[in-house]
Amino acid sequence: MQDIFFYLCKLLNYLAIVKSFKKVLISSMLNRRHIRIKVMQSLYAMQQSNTDQIQSGEKFLINSIENVEDLYLLMLTTLTEIRNKEEEYQEVSQKKHLATAEERNPNRKFIDNQVLNLLAQSTSISNKLEERSITQWRVHDHYIQILLDELKSSELYKNYMSSKLQSFEEDRKFVVSVFTDIIAPNEKIYEFFEDYKLTWLDDLPVVNTLIQKQLKQLKDDYSIFLVPRIFKDLDDKDFAINLYRKTILNYDELAKEYEDKTPNWDVDRIAEIDTIILRMAICEMFKFSSIPVKVSINEYLEIAKEYSTPKSSIFINGILDNISKLCQDNDKIKKIGKGLL
Q: Where is the NusB/RsmB/TIM44 domain (predicted)?
Protein backbone atom coordinates (compact mmCIF):
# COMPACT_ATOMS: atom_id res chain seq x y z
CA MET A 1 0.00 0.00 0.00
CA GLN A 2 2.83 2.34 0.89
CA ASP A 3 4.51 1.56 -2.43
CA ILE A 4 1.32 2.43 -4.33
CA PHE A 5 1.02 5.69 -2.41
CA PHE A 6 4.69 6.48 -3.10
CA TYR A 7 4.36 5.91 -6.84
CA LEU A 8 1.08 7.85 -6.95
CA CYS A 9 2.77 10.85 -5.36
CA LYS A 10 5.67 10.50 -7.76
CA LEU A 11 3.27 10.38 -10.72
CA LEU A 12 1.41 13.48 -9.54
CA ASN A 13 4.70 15.33 -9.11
CA TYR A 14 5.76 14.25 -12.61
CA LEU A 15 2.48 15.47 -14.09
CA ALA A 16 2.92 18.82 -12.34
CA ILE A 17 6.38 19.14 -13.88
CA VAL A 18 5.11 18.16 -17.33
CA LYS A 19 2.37 20.76 -16.99
CA SER A 20 4.97 23.40 -16.15
CA PHE A 21 7.05 22.30 -19.16
CA LYS A 22 4.05 22.80 -21.42
CA LYS A 23 3.81 26.37 -20.23
CA VAL A 24 7.38 26.92 -21.37
CA LEU A 25 6.74 25.16 -24.69
CA ILE A 26 3.82 27.47 -25.48
CA SER A 27 6.22 30.32 -26.20
CA SER A 28 7.35 30.94 -29.76
CA MET A 29 9.83 33.38 -31.20
CA LEU A 30 7.57 35.03 -33.77
CA ASN A 31 4.04 36.33 -33.48
CA ARG A 32 1.84 37.12 -36.49
CA ARG A 33 2.85 40.80 -36.61
CA HIS A 34 6.53 39.97 -36.80
CA ILE A 35 5.79 37.38 -39.47
CA ARG A 36 4.10 40.13 -41.48
CA ILE A 37 7.16 42.33 -41.00
CA LYS A 38 9.41 39.55 -42.27
CA VAL A 39 7.26 39.14 -45.37
CA MET A 40 7.27 42.91 -45.91
CA GLN A 41 11.08 43.00 -45.68
CA SER A 42 11.36 40.18 -48.20
CA LEU A 43 9.00 41.90 -50.65
CA TYR A 44 10.90 45.17 -50.25
CA ALA A 45 14.26 43.43 -50.82
CA MET A 46 12.89 41.75 -53.92
CA GLN A 47 11.52 45.06 -55.23
CA GLN A 48 14.83 46.83 -54.57
CA SER A 49 16.77 44.18 -56.47
CA ASN A 50 14.47 44.59 -59.50
CA THR A 51 13.96 40.87 -59.80
CA ASP A 52 10.87 38.80 -60.42
CA GLN A 53 12.41 35.57 -59.13
CA ILE A 54 9.78 34.46 -56.64
CA GLN A 55 11.85 31.56 -55.36
CA SER A 56 14.85 33.72 -54.46
CA GLY A 57 12.59 36.06 -52.52
CA GLU A 58 11.01 33.13 -50.72
CA LYS A 59 14.44 31.79 -49.85
CA PHE A 60 15.36 35.20 -48.42
CA LEU A 61 12.17 35.11 -46.33
CA ILE A 62 12.86 31.62 -44.95
CA ASN A 63 16.49 32.46 -44.14
CA SER A 64 15.45 35.70 -42.48
CA ILE A 65 12.98 33.84 -40.27
CA GLU A 66 15.42 31.05 -39.40
CA ASN A 67 18.08 33.62 -38.54
CA VAL A 68 15.87 34.92 -35.74
CA GLU A 69 16.75 31.72 -33.91
CA ASP A 70 20.48 32.45 -34.37
CA LEU A 71 20.04 35.91 -32.92
CA TYR A 72 18.07 34.48 -30.00
CA LEU A 73 20.83 31.97 -29.25
CA LEU A 74 23.54 34.62 -29.49
CA MET A 75 21.74 37.02 -27.16
CA LEU A 76 20.89 34.26 -24.68
CA THR A 77 24.40 32.78 -24.55
CA THR A 78 26.03 36.12 -23.77
CA LEU A 79 24.96 35.30 -20.21
CA THR A 80 26.81 31.98 -20.04
CA GLU A 81 29.76 33.32 -22.03
CA ILE A 82 30.46 36.17 -19.58
CA ARG A 83 30.15 33.67 -16.73
CA ASN A 84 32.70 31.38 -18.46
CA LYS A 85 34.99 34.31 -19.17
CA GLU A 86 35.03 35.27 -15.49
CA GLU A 87 35.73 31.67 -14.45
CA GLU A 88 38.69 31.51 -16.86
CA TYR A 89 40.01 34.77 -15.40
CA GLN A 90 39.77 33.46 -11.84
CA GLU A 91 41.53 30.19 -12.74
CA VAL A 92 44.40 32.07 -14.36
CA SER A 93 44.67 34.47 -11.39
CA GLN A 94 44.81 31.59 -8.91
CA LYS A 95 47.86 30.16 -10.70
CA LYS A 96 49.83 33.40 -10.61
CA HIS A 97 53.15 33.12 -8.80
CA LEU A 98 52.41 36.14 -6.63
CA ALA A 99 48.64 35.71 -6.39
CA THR A 100 46.94 37.78 -3.71
CA ALA A 101 44.77 36.27 -1.01
CA GLU A 102 41.68 37.45 -2.92
CA GLU A 103 42.96 35.85 -6.12
CA ARG A 104 43.71 32.55 -4.38
CA ASN A 105 40.25 32.49 -2.81
CA PRO A 106 38.00 34.45 -5.18
CA ASN A 107 34.34 35.22 -4.64
CA ARG A 108 32.58 32.63 -6.83
CA LYS A 109 29.06 33.87 -6.31
CA PHE A 110 28.69 35.05 -9.91
CA ILE A 111 30.24 31.89 -11.33
CA ASP A 112 28.06 29.68 -9.13
CA ASN A 113 24.87 31.57 -9.98
CA GLN A 114 22.18 28.88 -10.22
CA VAL A 115 20.41 30.40 -13.22
CA LEU A 116 23.61 30.83 -15.22
CA ASN A 117 24.55 27.22 -14.51
CA LEU A 118 21.05 26.10 -15.42
CA LEU A 119 21.47 27.79 -18.82
CA ALA A 120 24.93 26.28 -19.26
CA GLN A 121 23.57 22.79 -18.56
CA SER A 122 20.52 23.09 -20.81
CA THR A 123 20.65 20.37 -23.47
CA SER A 124 18.00 22.27 -25.41
CA ILE A 125 20.37 25.23 -25.78
CA SER A 126 23.52 23.17 -26.44
CA ASN A 127 21.76 21.07 -29.09
CA LYS A 128 20.50 24.16 -30.89
CA LEU A 129 23.94 25.80 -30.75
CA GLU A 130 25.40 22.75 -32.44
CA GLU A 131 22.56 22.43 -34.93
CA ARG A 132 22.79 26.08 -36.00
CA SER A 133 26.64 26.16 -35.79
CA ILE A 134 26.63 29.16 -33.46
CA THR A 135 30.29 29.97 -32.77
CA GLN A 136 30.37 33.76 -33.16
CA TRP A 137 31.33 34.46 -29.55
CA ARG A 138 34.41 32.24 -29.86
CA VAL A 139 35.61 34.29 -32.82
CA HIS A 140 34.50 37.65 -31.41
CA ASP A 141 35.08 37.02 -27.72
CA HIS A 142 36.24 40.61 -27.15
CA TYR A 143 32.55 41.55 -27.12
CA ILE A 144 32.07 39.17 -24.20
CA GLN A 145 34.98 40.85 -22.43
CA ILE A 146 33.34 44.25 -23.02
CA LEU A 147 30.14 42.99 -21.40
CA LEU A 148 32.00 41.42 -18.48
CA ASP A 149 33.97 44.61 -17.82
CA GLU A 150 30.81 46.70 -17.89
CA LEU A 151 29.06 44.27 -15.58
CA LYS A 152 31.89 44.14 -13.02
CA SER A 153 32.07 47.93 -12.83
CA SER A 154 28.33 48.23 -12.18
CA GLU A 155 26.61 48.72 -8.84
CA LEU A 156 24.36 45.82 -9.74
CA TYR A 157 27.32 43.43 -9.71
CA LYS A 158 28.94 44.93 -6.60
CA ASN A 159 25.72 44.71 -4.60
CA TYR A 160 25.09 41.15 -5.71
CA MET A 161 28.60 39.96 -4.91
CA SER A 162 28.60 41.58 -1.47
CA SER A 163 25.18 40.20 -0.52
CA LYS A 164 25.17 37.33 1.95
CA LEU A 165 21.90 36.02 0.57
CA GLN A 166 22.06 32.83 -1.44
CA SER A 167 18.85 31.79 -3.15
CA PHE A 168 17.55 30.88 -6.57
CA GLU A 169 15.24 33.91 -6.46
CA GLU A 170 18.13 36.29 -5.85
CA ASP A 171 20.17 34.65 -8.63
CA ARG A 172 17.23 34.86 -11.04
CA LYS A 173 16.55 38.54 -10.33
CA PHE A 174 20.23 39.31 -10.78
CA VAL A 175 20.42 37.53 -14.15
CA VAL A 176 17.26 39.27 -15.39
CA SER A 177 18.77 42.63 -14.41
CA VAL A 178 22.10 41.77 -16.07
CA PHE A 179 20.34 40.95 -19.31
CA THR A 180 17.98 43.94 -19.14
CA ASP A 181 20.39 46.63 -17.95
CA ILE A 182 23.80 45.48 -19.23
CA ILE A 183 23.46 43.20 -22.25
CA ALA A 184 20.29 44.24 -24.13
CA PRO A 185 21.11 47.99 -24.35
CA ASN A 186 24.84 47.55 -25.06
CA GLU A 187 25.78 49.67 -28.09
CA LYS A 188 28.78 47.54 -29.08
CA ILE A 189 26.64 44.43 -29.28
CA TYR A 190 24.07 46.40 -31.26
CA GLU A 191 26.76 47.53 -33.72
CA PHE A 192 28.05 43.98 -34.06
CA PHE A 193 24.61 42.68 -35.00
CA GLU A 194 24.06 45.60 -37.38
CA ASP A 195 27.25 44.75 -39.25
CA TYR A 196 26.68 41.01 -39.11
CA LYS A 197 23.08 40.86 -40.35
CA LEU A 198 21.01 43.99 -40.99
CA THR A 199 17.60 42.33 -40.56
CA TRP A 200 18.51 41.48 -36.96
CA LEU A 201 17.96 45.07 -35.87
CA ASP A 202 14.21 44.62 -36.31
CA ASP A 203 14.36 41.27 -34.51
CA LEU A 204 16.26 42.42 -31.42
CA PRO A 205 13.27 43.86 -29.48
CA VAL A 206 11.27 40.66 -30.08
CA VAL A 207 14.18 38.41 -29.08
CA ASN A 208 15.13 40.44 -26.00
CA THR A 209 11.55 40.53 -24.75
CA LEU A 210 11.24 36.77 -25.19
CA ILE A 211 14.46 36.05 -23.28
CA GLN A 212 13.40 38.39 -20.47
CA LYS A 213 10.07 36.62 -20.19
CA GLN A 214 11.69 33.18 -20.10
CA LEU A 215 14.20 34.17 -17.43
CA LYS A 216 11.47 35.63 -15.25
CA GLN A 217 9.43 32.43 -15.50
CA LEU A 218 12.19 30.17 -14.15
CA LYS A 219 11.36 28.47 -10.86
CA ASP A 220 13.57 26.76 -8.31
CA ASP A 221 11.54 23.57 -7.89
CA TYR A 222 11.54 22.28 -11.48
CA SER A 223 13.67 24.68 -13.44
CA ILE A 224 14.22 23.93 -17.09
CA PHE A 225 15.13 26.19 -19.97
CA LEU A 226 13.89 25.25 -23.42
CA VAL A 227 14.62 26.99 -26.70
CA PRO A 228 11.17 27.96 -28.02
CA ARG A 229 9.92 27.12 -31.46
CA ILE A 230 10.25 29.74 -34.19
CA PHE A 231 6.55 29.48 -35.05
CA LYS A 232 3.71 28.88 -32.62
CA ASP A 233 2.31 26.19 -34.92
CA LEU A 234 2.21 25.02 -38.54
CA ASP A 235 -0.57 27.52 -39.30
CA ASP A 236 1.79 30.40 -38.60
CA LYS A 237 4.49 28.87 -40.80
CA ASP A 238 2.00 28.38 -43.63
CA PHE A 239 0.75 31.92 -43.10
CA ALA A 240 4.24 33.34 -43.69
CA ILE A 241 4.79 31.44 -46.95
CA ASN A 242 1.25 31.95 -48.25
CA LEU A 243 1.22 35.67 -47.49
CA TYR A 244 4.44 36.09 -49.44
CA ARG A 245 3.31 33.96 -52.38
CA LYS A 246 -0.21 35.35 -52.68
CA THR A 247 1.02 38.93 -52.49
CA ILE A 248 3.63 38.33 -55.19
CA LEU A 249 1.39 36.32 -57.50
CA ASN A 250 -1.43 38.88 -57.30
CA TYR A 251 0.74 42.02 -57.27
CA ASP A 252 -0.93 43.85 -60.16
CA GLU A 253 -4.42 42.74 -59.17
CA LEU A 254 -3.92 44.00 -55.61
CA ALA A 255 -2.58 47.34 -56.85
CA LYS A 256 -5.77 47.95 -58.86
CA GLU A 257 -7.78 47.80 -55.63
CA TYR A 258 -6.20 51.00 -54.30
CA GLU A 259 -5.10 52.91 -57.42
CA ASP A 260 -8.52 54.46 -58.05
CA LYS A 261 -9.03 55.23 -54.35
CA THR A 262 -6.26 57.81 -54.04
CA PRO A 263 -7.78 60.93 -55.71
CA ASN A 264 -5.48 63.34 -53.90
CA TRP A 265 -2.37 61.23 -54.36
CA ASP A 266 -0.29 60.48 -57.43
CA VAL A 267 0.14 56.70 -57.35
CA ASP A 268 3.74 57.01 -58.55
CA ARG A 269 4.52 59.24 -55.55
CA ILE A 270 3.23 56.86 -52.90
CA ALA A 271 6.11 55.69 -50.71
CA GLU A 272 7.45 52.34 -51.89
CA ILE A 273 7.03 50.72 -48.50
CA ASP A 274 3.43 51.98 -48.38
CA THR A 275 2.59 50.21 -51.65
CA ILE A 276 3.93 46.97 -50.22
CA ILE A 277 1.96 47.40 -47.00
CA LEU A 278 -1.20 48.16 -48.98
CA ARG A 279 -0.80 45.11 -51.21
CA MET A 280 -0.17 42.83 -48.22
CA ALA A 281 -3.16 44.20 -46.31
CA ILE A 282 -5.49 43.90 -49.31
CA CYS A 283 -4.15 40.41 -49.96
CA GLU A 284 -5.12 39.39 -46.42
CA MET A 285 -8.54 40.95 -46.78
CA PHE A 286 -9.27 39.07 -50.03
CA LYS A 287 -7.18 35.88 -49.87
CA PHE A 288 -7.20 34.85 -46.19
CA SER A 289 -10.75 33.90 -45.31
CA SER A 290 -10.13 33.14 -41.63
CA ILE A 291 -8.50 36.48 -40.69
CA PRO A 292 -10.95 39.25 -39.73
CA VAL A 293 -10.72 42.39 -41.85
CA LYS A 294 -10.37 44.59 -38.76
CA VAL A 295 -7.41 42.53 -37.56
CA SER A 296 -5.64 42.89 -40.91
CA ILE A 297 -6.23 46.66 -41.03
CA ASN A 298 -5.08 47.22 -37.45
CA GLU A 299 -1.95 45.10 -37.90
CA TYR A 300 -0.81 46.93 -41.03
CA LEU A 301 -1.54 50.33 -39.51
CA GLU A 302 0.83 49.47 -36.65
CA ILE A 303 3.46 48.28 -39.11
CA ALA A 304 3.09 51.50 -41.13
CA LYS A 305 3.57 53.60 -37.99
CA GLU A 306 6.86 51.84 -37.33
CA TYR A 307 8.29 51.50 -40.83
CA SER A 308 6.92 54.32 -42.95
CA THR A 309 6.34 58.08 -42.85
CA PRO A 310 4.33 59.78 -40.07
CA LYS A 311 1.35 60.37 -42.38
CA SER A 312 1.39 56.88 -43.89
CA SER A 313 -0.81 55.21 -41.29
CA ILE A 314 -3.56 57.82 -41.83
CA PHE A 315 -3.28 57.46 -45.61
CA ILE A 316 -3.28 53.64 -45.46
CA ASN A 317 -6.12 53.55 -42.95
CA GLY A 318 -8.30 55.69 -45.25
CA ILE A 319 -7.69 53.45 -48.27
CA LEU A 320 -8.18 50.15 -46.43
CA ASP A 321 -11.29 51.38 -44.67
CA ASN A 322 -12.71 52.53 -48.02
CA ILE A 323 -11.95 49.16 -49.67
CA SER A 324 -13.43 47.27 -46.74
CA LYS A 325 -16.73 49.16 -46.85
CA LEU A 326 -17.10 48.93 -50.64
CA CYS A 327 -16.33 45.23 -50.71
CA GLN A 328 -18.67 44.44 -47.85
CA ASP A 329 -21.47 46.26 -49.66
CA ASN A 330 -21.03 44.16 -52.80
CA ASP A 331 -20.11 40.99 -50.86
CA LYS A 332 -16.69 40.83 -52.53
CA ILE A 333 -14.80 39.85 -49.37
CA LYS A 334 -15.61 36.33 -48.21
CA LYS A 335 -14.83 35.43 -44.60
CA ILE A 336 -15.47 32.18 -42.77
CA GLY A 337 -17.26 32.40 -39.42
CA LYS A 338 -19.35 35.04 -37.70
CA GLY A 339 -17.96 38.45 -36.88
CA LEU A 340 -14.93 38.09 -39.15
CA LEU A 341 -15.64 41.27 -41.07
A: 234-325
